[in-house]
Request: fold
Amino acid sequence: MTQVLRLTQKQPVSPRITRFRFEHPEGRSLPVFSGGAHVMVTMRDGEVLRRNAYSLISDPQDSSGYEIAVQREDQGRGGSNFLHEKAQPGMMLQIGAPVNLFGLNLTARKHLMIAGGVGITPFLSQLHEVVRLHAPFELHLAIRSRNELPALAIPDAAQVHVSDEGSRMNLTEILSTQPLGTHLYVCGSARMIEGVLTEASALGWPKDALHSEEFLAPAPGVPFEVNCARSDKTLTVGAHQSLLEALEAAGIDTPWLCRGGACGQCETDILACDGEIEHHDHWLDPAEHCSKIMPCVSRFRGALLTIDR
Amino acid sequence: MTISVPDTVFASRPRHAPLQARPCASALMIADEAGSAALLSLAKLAPELMPRSTILICSGSDATAAIRDLQPARLVEIGARTELPAALRGLLAEARMGLQAYIAGAEDLIDQAVAVLQTAGLPPGAIQTERRGSPARRMQCVHCKAITEGVTSDPYCCPGCSRSLYVRDHFSRRLGAYQGVCVDAETPGIVPEAQEISQ
Reply:
């Protein structure tokens, strides 16, 4: 489900992060959501259709509008730049219904949240829920320098670690002092998530208490050809295009939800492969790497790829 | 016709598997006499766990001497199974995430220990179980809620309400008990002959 909403506020909150607010053009209520949910923002940028997922940062129970915070990625594919440079209040944008792949586990006794930089965003909506539930929480935010601290509703109880000031996060200590029943949530760069999850596992935290979210942008790569057996078409995927985008451009229907390698919706069977799949997703089990591909983020390099689309 | 149940389908019955050493900040091992052998095997595979381990032995036995030789950080012995919940809660009071639990022994010991651990907040992913010894089950009567320890025959007579109860695989993780239901509800008085529970 997608609705066309009006951009009503655009406000810089740090040198690279801007807050955007969207409302229904006729003032109607929007569906409420749950903490940690994201929306897919579709942008018509000239000839290019861009779709980026952003975490909602507003109160999940507030149906008067949706707010997101977007960091400008100059090396990115252009979605965040479009929002920073071209999107202006009054503009209408397609905003998908909220989807949550990073919800709070409500059986947790305590919520331990670890954010790196703009990775604070999913926690901002979760915090509304945590406060409403009177659930104990601990929030750590790691940033490089003080001026990166975004002017967003970060609670006073948050522990801010600024690497420029030498106040780095002591992960081992944080992970060693949590009461039984604590669930850990981490959102930030791939490297940070990997670091936190590896340390937690080494310290005996079971997988069912660990949650992470990283939105992957499809990595660019070498153009490649793909045969779509069911539609009987052969496509070329461009260097800066994802396989999913190429399928859509060719009118081949492929389900999707997160477009970031996390939700599993676009999972596609491989029928023939002579070459190497570059798997970039967080979804497939390594045992499935020979038989499936996630077209939203993964690519191919080799002589022949035939997929069941 | 054989009906095969795919592994992905939720199974009500708890599954047990040989204990495997996992990385952890601390370990809590719980065993009865038969289960002690499983702890000895685990210690042989991962002796480095022992200095971080608290071992709780239920119904002290000859095996305790061998367990003591493993030199765990702490060894707690309790006499009767009825002391298990209180003893466990005491050990868990100061526990932190990073604790991995290893439980070995009779079905009913495992089920009761798992329920106490989960109530204390330990996630299921941090609990391993290996059945050694008796398949005796903890049963809850769904009618009068009486819990009967050590049920070894099916059906059995509920000591709470005297109904004959059918021993099913429907398991309550919250209670750590199987759910027994009246076996002759449709045919009052016609109770099948009791059979030994074999697994």
Summary: Chain B touches chain A through 19 residues (CB under 8 Å).
